[in-house]
Amino acid sequence: MPETKFSNLLLRQLKKHGLSETELPQDLNAWKEFIAKINKTYNEYDQARISSDNVLAVSLKEMEILQAEKAKLNADVLKELNENLSLVLQASDLGVWDWNLDTNAVNYDKRWCEIIGYEQKELEHNLETFMKLVHPDDIERVLTLADNYIKGLSPKFDVRFQMQHKHGEWVHIHAKGKIIKFDDTGRPKRFMGTHNDLTEEIRNQKEIEHHKSKLFHQSKLASLGEMSAGIAHEVNNPLAIIAGSAELLAKFIDRPDKFHAKIDSILRSCARISKILNGLKKFSRSAEKNEFKLIDLSQIIDEAVVLTEMKSTRASTPVMKDCRGNLKILCDDLGLEQVLINLINNGIDAVKNNEERWIKVTAHNDNEMVILRVIDSGPAIPHELEEKIFDPFFTTKTVGEGTGLGLSITRGILDEHHATIALNRHFPTTCFEIKFLSPKDNNGA
Amino acid sequence: MGLKIFYVDDEPELCEVFEELFSTEEISVETFTDPFKVLEKTISSPPDVVFMDYRMPGLNGLELARKMPVEIKKYLISGENNLVVDYPFEEILYKPFEIAHIRELLKQFKKS
């Protein structure tokens, strides 16, 4: 039991602080010591608190500075990234669109608008603007493709279409895009992509096509020119026979056998002339796009041989033909005729200084393929020339003799047939080998 | 003595026509389709006149003329137009040749 009796007030206060009277000092000195101890502890605590407050304050300040610096750094990096991005976009000439799938607001950047002749502020930045400007024939396809991509039915959004320029003309656009933001449930929220202006590219392409077709015609004219020297001879000969035979009809009027022989002779010569003229007419016709028909290659070879006959006879270089099997192919007959004339003419020129002079044109059917070969008696073409011979304007002939266009045109025509041309090195002499797919394979091409 | 002429052309039908047109009792016409054959024959049994085609395989009319004796009269018959050659042919005739003109020429030879 404690000797000291505390007042009720004190006892209540002690209790409030969770102290019991038994734990307290029992005399005044002990109390003084106790209070001094508490004061000391309190002072120490106070000191510690103030100093920690200071540290906290300093660290807070430093943290703030650090954070500000970091934010600034981020902003710089972000700014640089943005700048780089816009430089890249500028360099690539790509217009950017940014489609909010919730609201159908679409932000179009400066270049996007520029491609179709507008300033950014002239256009409403929503989906309707796009739908209004896309070619009516294209819009349904474009929206379906976008929809399929958004729904995840197709792996990418990549589409070409036309949009109307402010001035009315149609601009060819290549668009690509990607979903860049999904919501928590995985539903697409933001769809972003680019527009590439293909108009110039397509115009260039058309120009190239135009030049190619012009070149093709020129090369035909060149071959024609080469032939024309022989044409007069070829026509004047039968004319001489006709004139002579007609005169002789009077002489042979009483000799039916001779009389009829002369009439036959006249008819034959007329047929010969018309055959040559027909071949020429067909050959010189400017063929922009020829129809592909199922034709027996053997027939085309025959015609090419007739058309080169004048040259081959003059050069004493017989052209032999050897065709086997089914040679029906889907082709542009005039184009292939031109190919054969080029190859035969080249062959004749190539062997003109050789003792042994001949050209063989062979065709056969091999494993779903039709193989056409033009072989001449000349030595094989050197390896180092092999690549060059198909280049436009490459020629080994002297000036005025060749245009250097023959083989490049040849390759162009064969490309349209999905046919290949190469030198076949298994032959001891020069052999150009052309491979066509048989019609049933070619149908799908 | 009759006139002896050679006609050389790689076109057999034209050879035949030429012979039938111009051979008479006074004029013998022999035709050749091979220029080398006519050269042989010219040396063994020379004619008075040779009519030769220009464009022939192996040897053209010009080359053939140069290989023949100078004193034989030579006519070049060309299928192509505007041929320029540096050989003193009597004349260059173009196909289809004028039959009457050749008859006239042959008449003059008979006289001389």
Task: Report the mean per-residue pLDDT of chain B as an integer.
Answer: 90
Q: Total domains of chain A, how many?
A: 4
Structural class by secondary-structure content of chain A: alpha+beta
Which blocks of ≥5 consecutive residues of chain B have pLDDT under 50? none
The number of helices of chain A is: 12
Distance between the termini of chain A: 115 Å
The portion of residues forming beta strands of chain B comes to 15-25%
Task: Explain the overall architecture.
The complex is a heterodimer of chains A (445) and B (112). Chain A has helices at 8-16, 28-92, 110-115, 127-133, 136-150, 199-251, 256-284, 297-314, 333-350, 383-386, 406-416, 439-442; strands at 95-100, 106-108, 157-164, 170-182, 188-197, 293-296, 319-323, 328-331, 359-366, 369-379, 420-423, 429-437. Chain A has a five-stranded antiparallel beta sheet with strand order 2-1-5-4-3, with helices on both faces. Chain A is 54% helix and 19% strand. Chain A is rod-shaped, with a radius of gyration of 47 Å. Chain A has four domains: 23-91; 93-197, Beta-Lactamase (2-Layer Sandwich); 206-289; 290-445, Heat Shock Protein 90, CATH 3.30.565.10. In chain A, a hairpin with a 2-residue loop joins strand 9 (359-366) and strand 10 (369-379). Chain B is α/β, with parallel strands linked by helices and 112 residues long. Chain B has a single domain (3-111), classed as Rossmann fold, CATH 3.40.50.2300. Helix content of chain B is 37%, strand content 24%. Classes of the chains: A alpha+beta (445), B alpha/beta (112). The interface between A and B is medium-sized, with 23 and 20 residues.
